[in-house]
């Protein structure tokens, strides 16, 4: 099976904390992907971005709930408060014109010791009506949370793609090391044979020198490929989120797919438009911008709330206090009359942000179509290359076998034998590279079509313990038959 979508249903999820600190030595592709999804630091970065967005929703939603607070005040005043209606410049002092004859003078010029006063109260405010300001703000924050989740899924898909590319590249380099090792052994045999023929005067010194040069080239080719293998193993460790605990002794059990399931191109394009998390994130950001615009527009209208408090007010020297207690209550209406164009500017900013996301969404639709078409064409070309190079390897092996016989019989020169060796080397290397390209390009096709990440993570960003497997079309077989 090459291309697939998850079936309906949710698999079991994995926690962020994993018991295993290192991947197993014998590692299949699914294990490598799941390890990367549960250990790569970039995944955790985006998970915390999701939690940050959820906290923003909580902040916006809190405006619908009462705001309760407590406060206390103690101090010495001069000239203090005497026997007069209570008025201390609070906005709601008109609601409580109370005299405090029973408390006595709080302070005066002749007796500062009598000026020690205290106040403690519990207050509450409650939103009554705001013309939809915080309702739209909450909806906007929820859309941004969905966008943050889609960004997490985008990073999940990126990790899956990177792990696949690195995994297949390690397999490629190991295959090439094997090919170049055989090539080195073949060149050593030719060098030894040429030396024997040269000593028997059947070959010239030039033939022997050319054989030595070919041997050194083969050795250099092998060393370079071995170094590249070490680099690709390091890259595989990096894609799985490993640092100091990386390992170099992986035994990879899966090979790149060599067949192509014939899925219609337009079907893949439409699937990509429906499933790609980058596009889904942009869509949510557009809706968030629309809601944010509505929230900013609501600031043109009044903000109505209720308030009230109850507490203690008294003299700490003589112990006298107002009874039954300090209390206030009422309603507040905040009407914006002139803000210097601030509200209009905030509305325009939110509207332009939503329009930016709208055109970004359209741009993603175009890019997804191009990416799917590009990957689809590469996969088809890879399939043709594999067929061609498989035949070329068979022919090259027969040609080299025949050339060795002729060279031993002194019927051809070392140049002809070298050409046969080079042809086989190129054919085997080209076949291995084509198989690698098939795996990488199919991974790119699955990535661009948005059909890979749902097999490993839920739509909420939780990693599945076991990947889901299903065909993109129930009419398409899991494996295609060779023509």
From TrEMBL:
**Superkingdom as given in the UniProt entry:** Bacteria
Where does it reside? Cell outer membrane
Coiled coil feature spans: none
Q: Which GO terms describe its molecular function?
A: efflux transmembrane transporter activity; porin activity
Q: Which UniProt key words apply to this protein?
A: Cell outer membrane, Membrane, Transmembrane, Transmembrane beta strand, Transport
Q: What transmembrane ranges does the database entry give?
A: none
User: Per the record, what is one GO cellular component?
Assistant: efflux pump complex
According to its UniProt record, which protein family does this protein belong to?
A: Belongs to the outer membrane factor (OMF) (TC 1.B.17) family.
- UniProt-recorded name of the protein: TolC family protein
Phylogenetic classification of the source organism: Bacteria, Pseudomonadati, Nitrospirota, Nitrospiria, Nitrospirales
């Amino acid at each position: 099976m090459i291309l697939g979508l998850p079936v309906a249903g949710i698999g079991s999820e994995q926690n962020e904390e994993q018991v295993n600190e290192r991947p197993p030595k014998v590692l299949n592709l699914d294990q490598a992907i799941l390890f990367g999804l549960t250990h790569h630091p970039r995944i955790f970065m985006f998970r915390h971005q999701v939690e940050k967005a959820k906290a923003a929703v909580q902040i916006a939603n809190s405006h619908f709930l009462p705001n309760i607070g407590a406060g206390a005040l103690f101090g010495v005043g001069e000239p203090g408060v005497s026997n007069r209606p209570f008025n201390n410049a609070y906005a709601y002092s008109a609601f409580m014109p109370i005299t405090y004859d029973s408390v006595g003078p709080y302070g005066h010029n002749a007796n500062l010791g009598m000026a020690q006063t205290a106040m403690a109260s519990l207050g509450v405010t409650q939103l009554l009506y705001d013309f939809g300001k915080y309702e739209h703000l909450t909806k906007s924050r929820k859309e941004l949370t969905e966008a943050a989740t889609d960004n997490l899924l985008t990073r999940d898909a990126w990790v899956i793609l990177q792990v696949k590319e690195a995994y297949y590249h390690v397999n490629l380099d190991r295959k090439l090391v094997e090919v170049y090792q055989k090539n080195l052994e073949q060149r050593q045999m030719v060098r030894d044979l040429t030396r024997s023929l040269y000593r028997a005067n059947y070959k010239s010194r030039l033939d022997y020198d050319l054989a030595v040069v070919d041997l050194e080239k083969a050795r250099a080719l092998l060393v370079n490929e071995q170094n590249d293998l070490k680099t690709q193993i390091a890259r595989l460790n990096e894609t799985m989120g490993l640092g100091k605990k990386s390992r170099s002794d992986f035994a990879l059990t899966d090979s790149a797919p060599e067949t192509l399931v014939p899925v219609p191109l337009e079907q893949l394009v439409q699937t990509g438009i429906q499933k790609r998390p980058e596009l889904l994130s942009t869509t949510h950001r557009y809706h968030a911008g629309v809601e944010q615009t509505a929230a900013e527009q609501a600031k043109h209208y009044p903000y109505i709330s209720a308030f009230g408090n109850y507490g203690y007010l008294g003299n700490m020297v003589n112990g006298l206090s107002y009874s039954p207690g300090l209390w206030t209550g009422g309603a507040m209406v905040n009407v914006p009359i002139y803000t210097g164009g601030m509200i209009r500017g905030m509305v325009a900013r939110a509207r332009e942000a939503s329009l930016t996301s709208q055109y970004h969404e359209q741009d993603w639709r175009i890019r997804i179509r191009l990416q799917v078409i590009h990957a689809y064409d590469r996969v088809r070309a890879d399939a043709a290359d594999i067929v061609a190079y498989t035949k070329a390897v068979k022919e090259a092996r027969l040609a080299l076998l025949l050339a060795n016989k002729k060279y031993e019989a002194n019927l051809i020169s070392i140049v002809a034998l070298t050409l046969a060796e080079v042809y086989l080397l190129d054919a085997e290397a080209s076949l291995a590279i084509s198989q690698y390209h098939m795996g990488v390009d199919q991974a790119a096709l699955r990535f661009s079509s948005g059909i890979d990440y749902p097999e490993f993570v839920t739509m909420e960003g939780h990693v599945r313990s076991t990947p889901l497997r299903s065909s993109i079309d129930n009419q398409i077989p899991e494996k295609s038959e060779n023509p």
